[in-house]
Amino acid sequence: MEYEVLLTWDEEAQVWVAVNDDIPIALNSASLDELVERVKLATPEILEMNGKPHEGMTLHFKAERVAVAA
């Protein structure tokens, strides 16, 4: 199974946020690299807790950082 995880920058909170409704997962971190690692570690456990197979899963990450005009 393939999952696309959206990574977005929350300007107000100053953190990156990872979201995927199919897993389901919602995590945040100040570091993009740390967030990706957290998602990789947490996803198999979350899928298992929800009765979904995690063997052979593939994660794709899509990062967005939108600048807010002053």
Give a quick rundown of the structure.
The chain has about 70 residues and is α+β, with helices and mostly antiparallel strands. It has one helix spanning about 30-50; strands spanning about 1-10, 15-20, 25-30, 60-65.
List keywords for this structure.
4-stranded mixed β-sheet, single chain, 70 residues, alpha+beta
Question: How would you describe this structure to a colleague?
Answer:
The structure is a single chain. The protein has 70 residues and is α+β, with helices and mostly antiparallel strands. Helix content is 26%, strand content 39%. The chain contains 1 helix and 4 strands. The protein has one helix at 32-49; strands at residues 2-10, 15-20, 25-29, 58-64. A 4-stranded mixed β-sheet has the order 3-2-1-4, with helices on one face. Strand 1 and strand 2 form a beta hairpin. The longest helix has 18 residues, at 32-49.
* CA-CA gap between termini: 41 Å
Main sheet summary: 4 strands, mixed
Q: What is the residue-mean pLDDT, rounded to a whole number?
A: 94
Enumerate how many helices there are, as a single number. 1
Give me the strand/helix succession: EEEHE
Number of strands: 4
Strand content: 35-45%
Give Rg in angstroms: 13 Å
Based on Cα principal axes, name the global outline.
elongated
Unreliable stretches (pLDDT < 50, length at least 5) are none
Helix content: 25-40%
Write out the strand line-up for the largest beta sheet, numbering strands in chain order: 3-2-1-4
- Give me the secondary-structure category: alpha+beta
